[in-house]
Amino acid sequence: MNWLFWALLSALFAALTAILAKVGVSGVDSNLATAVRTSVVLVFAWGVALATNPAHALLGFSRRAWVFLVLSGLATGLSWLCYFRALQLGDASKVAPIDKLSVVLVLIFAVLFLGETLTLKTALGCGLIAAGAIVLALP
Question: What is d(CA 121, CA 20) in angstroms, rounded to the nearest whole number?
Fold first, then answer.
């Protein structure tokens, strides 16, 4: 199974996340809803990690890895808090496409900070994703 298989599964579960979260956040504080979901993710992720790796594998992480994983975790937390609030206030069919503008930002950041190449194909795809997200979110 290659990256495409896993990426498609990720998209499927992300879509389910939006629908399930929209229903779950109805009538409750979005920050508390995010905390509940995050707690489930925490327990699930540790369960999978410990079932597939020995606990002492954590000792092999470099300081750099720890710093960037912690920063990534903080960014994820902020993203989830904002996403749940947006779902509480708006339609899932409008929130999700705007949230997917993260794809456009990843492409831009990958070129600027990771030295990845921006090809005509990548730029065109990036523009189409941005245009599609905006069109889907319009009233």
Answer: 34
Read off the pTM: 0.84
Question: What number of residues does the chain have?
Answer: 139
Which pair of tokens denotes residue 27? 């009538």
Rounded Cα distance, 104 and 100, in Å: 8
Q: Which of 101, 84, 91 is nearest to 21 (CA)?
A: 84
Question: What whole-number distance in Å separates Cα of residue 21 and Cα of residue 13?
Answer: 12
What is the rounded (10 degree) CA torsion for 121, 132, 108, 64? -120
Nearest CA-CA partner of 17 in 96, 104, 117: 96
> What is the pLDDT confidence band of residue 1, given thresholds at 50, 70 and 90?
confident
The residue with tokens 């900070």 is 113
- Whose CA is closest to 40, among 66, 57, 60, 17? 17
